[in-house]
Amino acid sequence: xxxxxxxxxxxxxxxxxxxxxxxxxxxxxxxxxxxxxxxxxxxxxxxxxxxxxxxxxxxxxxxxxxxxxxxxxxxxxxxxxxxxxxxxxxxxxxxxxxxxxxxxxxxxxxxxxxxxxxxxxxxxxxxxxxxxxxxxxxxxxxxxxxxxxxxxxxxxxxxxxxxxxxxxxxxxxxxxxxxxxxxxxxxxxxxxxxxxxxxxxxxxxxxxxxxxxxxxxxxxxxxxxxxxxxxxxxxxxxxxxxxxxxxxxxxxxxxxxxxxxxxxxxxxxxx
Length: 271
Fold this sequence. Notes:
Elements: H1 2-11, H2 15-26, H3 35-42, H4 59-63, E1 80-82, E2 87-94, E3 99-103, E4 106-109, H5 110-114, E5 123-129, E6 136-138, E7 143-151, H6 160-165, H7 169-172, E8 175-182, E9 185-192, E10 200-202, E11 216-226, E12 231-235, E13 239-245, E14 250-252, E15 259-260, E16 265-269
Antiparallel strand pairs: 1-16, 2-5, 2-15, 3-4, 5-13, 6-12, 7-8, 7-11, 8-9, 9-13, 10-12, 14-16
């Protein structure tokens, strides 16, 4: 009942307009008055960050904070696929008829999420970032970035209560998709926007979501070489990353409910 009421209220809220308003406020100096309360409310661990609380002049600056490099060493193992984010695994497994069950009775259509058709099934990991988490997104496996695409959409929240109530939620939200080829085949890294600020930026392109832009993208010619653990993008508030890989190339070493940390292995290359 609580889930139903919450999602019903959000269904009539001006999600995109509200997100832009929240984003505008988060970038003002006045928002610094909320940084201490934000840290206390969500238990943000600033001991891992490059700055202290006073270093962040706005709420967005706090949210997009950098980490000290030594607190997240990148696993050097030759077969490792590392977590691109700090967060919690919501799903790890194989799709069935092109879909995964992201919550009981709720499915995610992967072709709709990625924005292209594919043959067979995919191996998928869904990684949820809570407000307390570090919100930069990194490269999970060295390779070549071949293209990126922006998919406009709405901005449902992505916390578990909403996912349990809204079918195909991630494919409805604004998202950026980066297609990478690795020694383990193709890998789509999908950055999904969420209610709140809703903004996502990429290192590969001059793109910022939730600004009223149309669907766009670019085939990268020549492809861009990506190092494992390199910065790929940033959530300016909220969200989820979906990794979609060619089947039978990787073995997931995490399961739903596991905490994940940027740089630590979440999968192994099947040789």
